[in-house]
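Standup notes
- DV: blocked on the single-chain target, sequence here:
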Amino acid sequence: MARMFVALLPPEDVLRPLADAVERLRADRSGPAVGLRWASPKSWHITLAFLGEVPAGVRPALARALARVAAEYPPAPVTISGGGRFGSRVLFAAVDERPLAPLARAVAQAARQAGADGLDPRERRGHLTLATHRPSPHRPSPHRQGRRTDAPAPAPAPADQPNLAVLVDSLAGVSARPWTATGFALMSSGSPPGPPYATTATWPLAG
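- DV (later): unblocked, structure below
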């Protein structure tokens, strides 16, 4: 089993303005970026469909289904501009969803029909993940703090809840270079100490 997804892989030169802006945010050691886990620009991607755990026996049919989608759809313009967030957990660069929505729907449908039935059921929102935050597992327990277990938890410290809204505002004027996606990739999640993702296969958009 492997956790897999289908994604667009922007070229490095397209992302340079965004990478420069992120580097400036990360350099502020006392600002709202403290406590975030930043994704390496080398791993940046735009997910078309998250497939979840895909059994090895499903992958040949999945590859054939994705190849058919790629043959039917033309290259798509991609606009990466500004920022956004999913609560206090994820900071992302915003992606214009409209040109990519038909392709994303076709990819998801083809994957489901091929037997990859672990697709994310949530509504898709075009984005490129820049950083994530997870509360520290080493925070003191209620017992160590001398509180009753049924007592209300104290308000989290600033380090536990980064102010992502400030970072989103900082990205408001940042745009990547205009780009046309000419293909997509089937990716799998890696494991430490290797790269976070590996490219399993790629297909050109030839419709």
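- Follow-up: DSSP finds four helices and ten strands in the chain.
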